Amino acid sequence: MNNFDSKWQTCAAQARQQPPGDLRAPAGFASRVLARASVPETPGLAEVWQALVARLLAGSVALLLLCTALEWPHLRERPTLQTGVENTVAQLLWSL
Amino acid sequence: MTTKEYDLAQCLEGARRGEPEAARALVEQLYPLVIRIVRSHLPVRAAEEDLAQEVFLKLFSRLDQYQARAGIPFEHWVSRLAVRTCLDALRAERRRPEVRCSDLSDEQSAWLEFLLLDGAAAPAADSTSAREVIELLLSQLPPAAGLVIRLLDLEEKSVKEISQLTGWGQSLVKVRAFRARRQLRKLAKTLKSSV
To answer: Are residues B101 and B171 located together in one domain of the fold?
Structure first.
């Protein structure tokens, strides 16, 4: 243990001597707690947002799956882009 | 219900059934335990009664989760809940108060010098200023680091007890304590050199 640590322990030992103060509950404390406990807790903004995001995500995934299922049979039928168009798009993307 | 009549199992049953008298007895019986923890880990800008209320509200909302298993007394479960609530409150308090050496009283400065200067004698027995200097330095630490030093040095808890109270593994407690002590030394030096 170095010098600072041993001195810290001396200081902490001195600090521990401080009396803990009044430990009795202030008047009406239990009533205030019970009154607050009886009120149904309203969800915070974070909880509402979390619930909405989860539902939104589930909905989006379901929609995506539905679209994929509908499109699946036609995927191979669809012709690819013409070479000229494909080259133009590639060049445009490259220039970006 | 007076203290003599207090029966934990009966109060727990009553509180779970929503009996106000049982819940009131539980609050009154547990208040000293809770307030002692709250006072030791109180964020700078929080009122102790508000935080104590927060602990009891959590206690009632989670009462069904407590099961009287062997080795986990109810008071221990409550202590853990109180420590976690205080830690959350400390984490929510993002900005820590800025302190300068010139803000310290003579007694506090004497303790700071004692901590940092070789050969400096310990100030005369003064638990209040010693506590204030310690609180001041701990308030500058990150919440988890401050908590571990408070529990170890001010409340004299063992690593095992801290692990049970916080839910951290014993090696994590040791690592956090080691790092916190190093940070404390640095903080004390910074405070001493600040004008």
So the answer is: yes
